[in-house]
Amino acid sequence: MGTATGSAFDTETLRRGIEGNTGNTLLSLYSDDAEIRIVDRNNQPSHPTVLHGRGQIAELLDDIYSRDMTHKLDRCVVQGDQVAYSESCEYGDGTRVLAESMVTLRDGKIADQLIIQAWDE
């Protein structure tokens, strides 16, 4: 991994952010007006959860990183201003979560992200 040519998106910062203990590093990768759409069992494609701006994204990350769980960046592909990555997570009780993200960059920052996630039930 490394810095993507042209987009200045640093995948090593993405790895450190995802695998870290707080959402602060990850939050630094988002533009001020970024949007995240989340699709999962409870938020289906017709009605995804939609977060607007770094404030709402910070709240999500604070919630996620306050939980007893680990996060791992499994794969990441950068092509121009598009990034796709896979993330695996595990709660302290062994429950696993998988998430796939498709990202659009603007000036090297995440401007739009679609997250599709599934977890053990």
Going across the biggest sheet, name each strand in turn. 2-1-6-5-4-3
Percent strand: over 45%
Strand and helix order: HHEEHEEEE
Q: What general outline do the C-alpha atoms trace?
A: globular
Query: Can you give the helix content as a percent range?
Result: 10-25%
Q: How many distinct beta strands? A: 6
- Poorly predicted spans: 1-7
Radius of gyration equals 14 Å
The averaged pLDDT comes out at 93
The major pleated sheet works out as: 6 strands, mixed
Structural overview:
Mean pLDDT is 93; it is low at 1-7. The protein has helices at 11-19, 24-27, 53-65, and strands at 30-39, 49-52, 69-79, 82-91, 96-106, 109-119. The chain is built from three helices and six strands. The chain is globular and about 40 Å long. The protein is α+β, with helices and mostly antiparallel strands. Pfam families: SnoaL_2.
Could you give a short description of this structure?
Helix content is about 20%, strand content about 45%.
Summarize the helices and strands and which ones pair or pack.
Elements (H helix, E strand, L loop, with lengths): L10 H9 L4 H4 L2 E10 L9 E4 H13 L3 E11 L2 E10 L4 E11 L2 E11 L2
Parallel strand pairs: 1-6
Antiparallel strand pairs: 1-2, 3-4, 4-5, 5-6
Short descriptors:
disordered N terminus; alpha+beta
